[in-house]
C-alpha cells in the first residue's frame, strides 16, 4: 500500500513552492502519493516560472487521491486567489501558510495522510497574521495536544535533538532541568526505536557550559542537573552517555559513535549540524502522534522567485517522511 504524504505549501512569497515542485520533479511516484495543500493558483504560478508540466489534479474530497500524480488539496476557493509577491514578508502569505499547515495536520490526524512535510514559513509573516507561535514545532504540538515534542535534525548519518528549541539564549539556563532532559531522552529513544528502526539506540548528551562545566569551575549545571538526568535515563533502560563538551564533540567525530546527540539549546546543536550537512538536512518532530518533516532551511526571501533555490533538503524531507511512514505503519 502506497503511503500518502501531505505537503503544506509554506510561505508562497518564499522558496517553499519552488523547492517543492523541483523535488516533485524528481520523486519516484511508485513509492508514495503526494498531496500538495494550498491554492492551485500558487501551484500554477511556480509551475509556469519553472517551466514545468507536472502531472497533477485537484482533489474533490479528502479520500480522492490518485497514484502517479500530484494531488492538489485546495484551501480557500477560486474567488480568494492569493496575491503572490516573491521576496515580500506579508501577513496574507503567513495566513495562507498556516492554514495549509492546519489542513495538513487534520489530514494526518484523520488518517487521510501518513505523514506531513512542511515547506518553510516566515515567523515574522505568521506573527503579522496573528499567530503567536515561535515555529512549526510548537504549533504542531499545540494542534495535536502533545506535551512532549522533540525537535530533531536528521541526515543520512547524523541525528541531533534539542532540549530547548526557540527560546532566547538568556533564558536557556533556567530551562535546563533534570525532568526536562529525562523526558527529552525518553522521546528521543522511543523515536529512534519506532521511527528509525534502531533496536538499542545509543545517545550522547552534551553539556551546557564551556568544557561541560570543567568540574564545576565554569558552571554546575553538568554536575547538578545533566549528569543526574543521564543516570535517571540509564535506570529507565536508555543508553545515554555524557555530558560531553559541545565545542569539540562534532569536530572530533565523536558523534559517529552514537545513534543520536542531545544538545542543550538551538545553536549548540544546529550550528554543527548545518555545517556538516547544510542543504541536505531534515527537521523531524519526534514525539508527535503524526509524522512531520521539513527542510532544514527557511524561506530565503532574498532569492525567492528567481528559480535558483536548491531543492535537496526538501527532497530529503519528503523521502524521510516516506521512510518513517513505512516504518511506523509496519510497527502497527
Brief characterization of the structure:
Helix content is 39%, strand content 17%.
Q: What does the radius of gyration come to?
A: 20 Å
Strand content range: 15-25%
How many domains make up the 3D coordinates? 2
The largest sheet, given as strand count, sense and whether it forms a barrel, is: 12 strands, mixed
Task: Summarize the structure in words.
The chain contains eleven helices and twelve strands. The chain is α/β, with parallel strands linked by helices and 332 residues long. The chain has two domains: 191 residues, Isopropylmalate Dehydrogenase (3-Layer(aba) Sandwich); 132 residues, Isopropylmalate Dehydrogenase (3-Layer(aba) Sandwich). Strand 6 and strand 7 form a beta hairpin.
Question: Which short descriptors sum up this protein?
Answer:
Isopropylmalate Dehydrogenase; 2 domains; 17% strand; alpha/beta; 11 helices; single chain; 332 residues; 39% helix; 12-stranded mixed beta sheet
Q: Layout of helices and strands, plus pairs?
A:
Elements (H helix, E strand, L loop, with lengths): L2 E6 L7 H9 L7 E7 L1 H11 L5 E3 L11 E5 L16 H19 L5 E4 L4 H6 L7 H8 L6 E5 L4 E4 L6 H7 L2 H17 L7 E5 L14 H15 L3 E6 L1 H4 L10 E4 L2 H12 L4 E5 L5 E4 L16 H20 L1
Parallel strand pairs: 1-2, 1-5, 2-4, 3-4, 5-12, 7-10, 8-9, 8-10
Antiparallel strand pairs: 6-7, 6-11, 11-12
Amino acid at each position: 500500500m502506497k503511503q500518502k504524504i501531505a505537503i503544506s505549501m509554506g510561505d508562497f512569497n518564499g522558496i517553499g513552492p519552488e523547492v517543492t515542485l523541483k523535488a516533485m520533479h524528481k520523486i519516484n511516484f511508485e513509492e508514495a502519493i503526494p498531496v500538495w495543500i494550498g491554492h492551485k493558483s500558487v501551484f500554477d504560478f511556480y509551475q509556469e516560472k519553472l517551466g514545468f508540466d507536472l502531472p497533477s489534479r485537484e482533489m474533490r474530497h479528502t479520500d480522492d487521491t490518485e497514484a502517479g500524480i500530484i494531488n492538489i488539496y485546495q484551501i480557500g476557493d477560486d474567488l480568494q486567489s492569493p496575491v503572490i509577491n516573491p521576496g515580500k514578508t506579508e501577513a496574507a502569505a503567513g495566513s495562507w501558510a498556516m492554514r495549509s499547515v492546519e489542513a495538513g495536520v487534520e489530514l494526518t490526524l484523520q488518517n487521510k495522510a501518513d505523514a506531513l512535510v512542511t515547506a518553510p514559513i516566515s515567523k515574522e509573516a505568521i506573527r503579522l497574521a496573528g499567530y503567536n507561535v515561535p515555529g512549526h514545532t510548537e504549533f504542531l504540538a499545540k494542534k495535536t495536544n502533545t506535551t512532549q515534542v522533540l525537535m530533531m535534525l536528521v541526515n543520512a548519518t547524523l541525528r541531533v535533538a534539542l532540549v530547548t528549541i526557540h527560546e532566547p539564549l538568556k533564558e536557556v539556563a533556567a530551562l535546563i532541568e533534570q525532568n526536562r532532559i529525562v523526558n527529552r531522552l525518553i522521546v528521543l529513544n522511543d523515536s529512534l526505536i519506532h521511527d528509525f528502526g534502531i533496536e538499542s539506540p545509543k545517545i550522547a548528551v552534551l553539556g551546557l557550559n564551556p568544557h561541560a562545566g570543567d568540574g564545576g569551575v565554569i558552571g554546575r549545571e553538568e554536575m547538578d542537573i545533566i549528569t543526574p538526568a543521564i543516570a535517571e535515563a540509564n535506570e529507565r533502560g536508555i543508553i545515554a552517555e555524557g555530558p560531553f563538551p559541545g565545542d569539540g564533540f562534532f569536530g572530533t567525530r565523536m558523534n559517529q559513535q552514537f545513534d543520536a546527540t542531545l544538545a542543550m539549546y538551538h545553536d549548540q546543536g544546529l550550528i554543527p549540524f548545518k555545517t556538516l550537512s547544510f542543504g541536505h538536512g531534515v527537521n523531524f518532530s519526534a514525539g508527535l502522534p503524526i509524522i512531520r518533516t521539513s527542510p532544514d532551511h527557511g524561506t530565503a526571501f532574498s532569492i525567492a522567485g528567481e528559480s535558483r533555490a536548491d531543492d535537496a533538503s526538501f527532497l530529503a524531507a519528503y523521502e524521510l517522511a516516506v521512510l518513517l511512514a513505512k516504518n511506523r505503519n509496519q510497527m502497527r
